[in-house]
Design goal:
Layout (H helix, E strand, L loop, with lengths): L9 H12 L18 E5 L4 H12 L3 E5 L3 H14 L6 E5 L10 H12 L6 E4 L18 H21 L8 E5 L31 H22 L1 H7 L2 E5 L16 H6 L6 H13 L11 E3 L3 E3 L3 H6 L4 H13 L4
Parallel strand pairs: 1-2, 1-4, 2-3, 4-5, 5-6, 6-7
Antiparallel strand pairs: 7-8
């Protein structure tokens, strides 16, 4: 368990919540992106929403993209849609299906397919974009873990384990990892956002679980920690290769992420205030491509639509006092049997 967390300001939380609905205009736009010929990006959740827009923009800049999805059929459909819309690209899109991030048994085989698709080429960009935000707090993964944490935290970390040997090579000047978080991390638990006694709520009666927003907030706090912890755990290679690993809150975006909450009173109220998915892509691609981020930016928290803010104060402290590493190592122990 991490040391006792410092307090955090509800005023800052309110300020950041308001910023999410009225963020700064996007300044780093597709016209500013570099040519990505011969670059390779791996993007999870590419068949819909922000992920679809991210792949579309990368491909429009001649990037080779490997899209990782649960449903091969939906991934191929998204690929066809992009190819029909963008005719001039010199890049490519390959779809790797059957990667269910909540089911740890599927990730190694998906990683083997990614390795095949990479075929020895440099990987320049990894974007852990896929995730869930269900209305229900009662989901359980096949391994018995709380479903939101399993999908948003454990699955991406296990996938990154398999991508590391492909990514951590001196083969390209661009090396970025984006861990997609959310402003909802402010709703995580009081101690660094994490329920340290049992983050996966194993053995806890479903009726005794906290709200789905608290669970989602926990997973998004964990993503912020993962960005910094990955860089620290791979510090020598990261320094030599000038890798950059950051977290990213894409914005308050209309996507299928809210599909389980579509008919809720909250979503009916918020929907007119949400931005289109292309705006979320602008944020993620600022994190992936902007020269403003350097190897001194490890663990930075990118917010819409391409700015750097501070996360909740206790989580900010956790990035400096080793709490991020405690969370990373705890997850590593939970997933090591699937290496």
């Amino acid at each position: 368990m991490a040391e006792s967390a410092p307090g955090y300001s509800k005023l800052y939380m309110a300020k950041e919540a308001l910023y999410g609905f009225r963020p700064c205009p996007a300044e780093f736009l597709p016209k500013d992106y570099p040519d990505l010929s011969n670059k390779l990006a791996v993007v999870t959740g590419m068949n819909t929403g922000i992920g679809l827009e991210v792949v579309k923009l990368l491909y429009s800049k001649n990037c080779n993209v490997i899209g990782v999805v649960r449903s091969t059929e939906k991934g191929l459909s998204a690929r066809t849609k992009i190819l029909e819309e963008i005719k001039e690209s010199k890049g490519s899109i390959e779809v790797i299906g059957n990667c269910e991030l909540s089911d740890l048994t599927t990730i190694k085989s998906a990683a083997s397919e990614i390795t095949r698709a990479v075929a020895g080429r440099p990987i320049s960009i990894i974007i852990h974009n896929a995730g869930i935000m269900p209305e229900s707090n009662r989901g359980v993964s096949k391994q018995g873990h709380e479903l939101i944490f399993a999908t948003n935290v454990m699955g991406p970390q296990l996938l990154q384990h398999f991508l590391d040997p492909l990514f951590l090579k001196s083969d390209d000047s661009l090396k970025r990892i984006v861990w997609v978080s959310s402003g909802a991390h402010f709703f995580g638990f009081s101690q660094y956002g994490i329920n340290w006694e049992n983050p996966t709520f194993e053995g806890v009666d479903l009726k005794s679980r906290p709200s789905s927003m608290r669970l989602y907030g926990q997973s998004k706090a964990a993503n912020i920690f993962q960005a910094k912890a990955w860089a620290t755990r791979n510090a020598d290679m990261v320094e030599n290769l000038k890798c950059v690993s950051v977290s990213c809150y894409p914005g308050n975006i209309r996507t299928e992420l809210q599909r389980d909450m579509e008919n809720s009173m909250l979503m009916r109220f918020l929907k007119p205030l949400l931005y289109g998915p292309e705006y979320g892509a602008y944020t993620e691609l600022y994190a992936a491509l902007s020269s403003e981020l350097t190897s001194n930016s490890q663990g930075a928290y990118v917010v819409p639509f391409g700015k750097i803010h501070e996360p909740r104060e206790d989580i900010k402290a956790g990035l400096q006092n080793g709490t991020d590493l405690k969370l990373w190592d705890w997850v590593e122990k939970k997933i090591e049997n699937y290496f």
